[in-house]
Design goal:
Layout: H1 3-18, E1 48-58, E2 64-79, E3 82-96, E4 104-121, E5 129-141, E6 148-165, E7 169-184, E8 189-207, E9 210-223, E10 229-246, E11 249-263, E12 278-287
């Protein structure tokens, strides 16, 4: 693991804890201001939202690789500090000449998911916000290869956030663990894998309703759900922008490039086997 990845979690947690306690500004909500990460806010009791999340992934180790996922989600906050989200995803792939992957040009329904989030600490009354999220998903199309599969997984994510400058700058930190069980239908092969990671995001309010910043994510993928054998690792960095379009609607856009990575047993500067070279995400949502 690179030195930066080792020190990042410790430095962020220390920074968040040392900041003086201040209430976050009215309307300054971290629930949706990040794209690849999450904030600790979960919305207010009784809120209902529709969300469209479009994710593009581009670039593998040779050939042409284009993959896009389109997820539609409904979000509910039935009680204080607790949010439920139900989603359905469609996937499109254009793969040609990529080593280790069959050529495919495919669009299909990928699968569904349900997400639960509970906020344990609120920035109004604690040194930082703290939320635990758990997402369970089932997929019938592999998001990398577009093969027909039967996939089941659970993503556990711990999110912390803290205003560094009240009403102006906020930072968030995520820890991730995602075990997955997959059976490849075409080949009759069963696989188990897992991903762990840490992410840091910082957003600054340039003017009311417009935030600009960036996200950095370090990911490690393993064979086996118990982190038995490292398959590869990658560091993604890129900008994020948040726009409050109206009182009840918003848009978040983010781009990340893999700036460092390595497949297991390789001296390559990037891991283009387990991850992509470029990732982008656009999230649009509104209350109803």
């Amino acid at each position: 693991m690179p030195t930066t990845a080792k020190t990042l979690p410790t430095a962020v947690v220390c920074l968040l804890a040392l900041m003086p306690v201040r209430a976050h500004a009215e309307g300054f909500d971290t629930e949706h201001i990040f794209a690849f990460m999450i904030g600790a806010d979960v919305g207010n009791k009784g809120e209902r939202e529709f969300q469209s999340e479009t994710t593009g992934r581009f670039g593998k180790n040779g050939g042409k690789y284009r993959a896009a996922g389109q997820e539609f989600e409904l979000e509910f906050v039935p009680v204080e500090n607790f949010r439920i989200e139900v989603g359905s995803t469609f996937a499109a792939h254009a793969i040609s000449g990529v080593p280790g992957l069959d050529d495919r040009n495919r669009f299909s329904w990928q699968g569904g998911s349900v997400d639960f989030r509970y906020r344990f600490l609120d920035r109004d009354t604690a040194p930082f916000g703290l939320t635990l999220a758990m997402e369970a998903h089932a997929n019938r199309v592999d998001e990398i290869s577009a093969e027909g599969i039967r996939n089941y997984g659970t993503e556990f994510r711990l999110a912390l956030d803290r205003e560094l400058i009240p009403d102006r700058v906020i930072a968030a930190f995520n820890l991730l663990y995602e075990p997955e069980w997959t059976r490849i239908v075409e080949r009759g092969v069963a696989e188990r894998e897992s991903t762990i990671g840490a992410a840091l995001g910082i957003m600054a309010q340039m003017r009311p309703g417009f935030l600009l910043g960036g996200e950095a994510r370090y990911l490690r993928r393993y064979e086996g759900i118990g982190l038995q054998e490292l398959a590869g690792e990658a560091l993604f960095i890129g900008p994020t922008a948040y726009f409050q379009l109206s009182k009840g609607s918003r848009l978040t856009a983010s781009y990340s490039a893999q700036v460092w990575g390595r497949p297991a047993g390789s001296i390559a500067a990037l891991d283009l086997v387990n991850f992509e070279r470029h990732q982008a995400r656009v999230v649009f949502g509104f209350n109803f």
